[in-house]
Amino acid sequence: MDRKLSRQEASEATGAHGWRFLLGTLRTSVPVHSLHQAAVAAMRAAEVCGSDADGHLRSDIRADRVVLTLQTRAIAALTALDADLARRLFEAMIELNLRPTPESVQQFEIAIDALDIASIRPFWKAVLGYLDEPGATGPEDPIVDPLAQAPPVWFQQMDVPRPQRNRMHLDVAVPHDEAPGRIAAALAAGGRLVSADRAPAFWVLADAEGNEVCVTTWQGRD
Hints:
The protein is α+β, with helices and mostly antiparallel strands. It folds into two domains: 7-95, 2-Layer Sandwich (Gyrase A, domain 2), CATH 3.30.1360.20; 107-216, 2,3-Dihydroxybiphenyl 1,2-Dioxygenase, domain 1 (Roll). It is 29% helix and 26% strand. It is built from six helices and twelve strands. The chain has a six-stranded mixed beta sheet with strand order 8-5-9-12-11-10. A hairpin with a 6-residue loop joins strand 10 (192-195) and strand 11. The longest helix is centred in the middle third of the chain and has 16 residues, at 80-95. It starts with 6 loop residues before the first helix and ends in a 6-residue tail after the last strand. 30% of the residues are buried.
């Protein structure tokens, strides 16, 4: 059960149960009608995961939904156990007359473009109060919020200086089957497609003033 899963394996194993792969995690949203019902659903999820809950499950409780996230946090990766828990959680929610759905799940990343990643990473780690991601402690690796409340930060290698604009952009990780709709909506709202060379891993879009954002999915990365 501790075998690491590829992105493809994780998606195929859990997609039919309302989960989507996002940035090394499995996520689903469970619509509810009240905060009390959300708490009941979260408690049931913890019971189903049992002793594995603390190391694998995170629940975000709202009055209209519970967002459940699975990951083997000790290694910041997905394992066969996470996929098994996803299937069991789906069945438990159905028993509560609730249906997990991938709608509205997404995750943001902040990307910082840099010529010398190793020289700036310590600054961002300190000023944000971030930590190394488990299993990724190298001088150019991403950094993460220890409370998992703020977006992760990763660093993109630049070849030449680019002083004409801020060297930061947003990454919006969405379920792979929602990416086309998200991109179409952004273009209809006045954006433009800068590049689709790396699709479906990511599309680069920009607003009318050239500020860039990447819409990303897990596909095309294994």
